[in-house]
Amino acid sequence: MTRSPLPPVIRIATALIFNPEGETLLVRKEGSHIFMQAGGKIDAQETAVHALIRELYEELGLALSMEEAEYLGSFSAEAAHEPGHLIQADVFRVLVSTPVSAQAEIEELLWVSPLEAPTDCLAPLTRDILMPLAVKLLQGGCARL
Ligand SMILES: Nc1nc2c([nH]c(=O)n2[C@H]2C[C@H](O)[C@@H](COP(=O)(O)OP(=O)(O)OP(=O)(O)O)O2)c(=O)[nH]1
After folding, report:
1. Is 115 exposed, middle or buried (0-12, 13-18, 19+ CB in 10 A)?
2. Which stretches are transmembrane (predicted)?
């Protein structure tokens, strides 16, 4: 019996970003119709939190300190943009009270209530893991400033 090879894994850092209204931020990258959390690949020699800080600055112009990123855990899902790949995502919670704007390769930003988010245009990690987690955090009263 032959075993099928394990799919390649991409390590990313991403965040459930909340505003004071309890909405969470989704982004759509250039050339994609799928919404997901801001963030991106973790470079070699980089820690997850440093990758997050770099990516949120590049994508949203957000200047974040390490203390402002609370680690929530590591989660796996099918990669949205790379067929046949899995992502292993280090996920943080970030609360923002200043405006953010789409930079670099981000085409659209969307603030959504986790309870009312659309499900048909979300990346697998976002749809199956992070939006349900956002609902739990909100219901626990932990997502507000
Ligand atoms: N940022 C982010 N990426 C996600 C999520 N869900 C998901 O499948 N991905 C996938 C999309 C891509 O296949 C991969 C992230 O790659 P990327 O190309 O956006 O990362 P990057 O900004 O570092 O870009 P690059 O170095 O390839 O130019 O992870 C998510 O919620 N957030």
Report:
1. exposed
2. none
Going from the Cα of 84 to the center of ligand 1, the distance in angstroms, rounded, reads 14
Q: Does ligand 1 lie within 6 Å of residue 24's CB atom?
A: no
Biggest CA pair distance of the chain: 57
Going from N- to C-terminal start, the domains of the chain cover 9-139
pLDDT (tens digit per residue) in 7-44: 899 999 999 999 999 999 999 999 999 999 999 999 99
The CATH class for the domain spanning 9-139 reads alpha beta
Rounded to two decimals, the pTM is 0.93
8 touches ligand 1 (CB under 6 Å): no
Ligand 1 near 59 CB (within 6 A)? no
**pLDDT tens by residue, 43-94:** 999 999 999 999 999 999 999 999 999 999 999 999 999 999 999 999 999 9
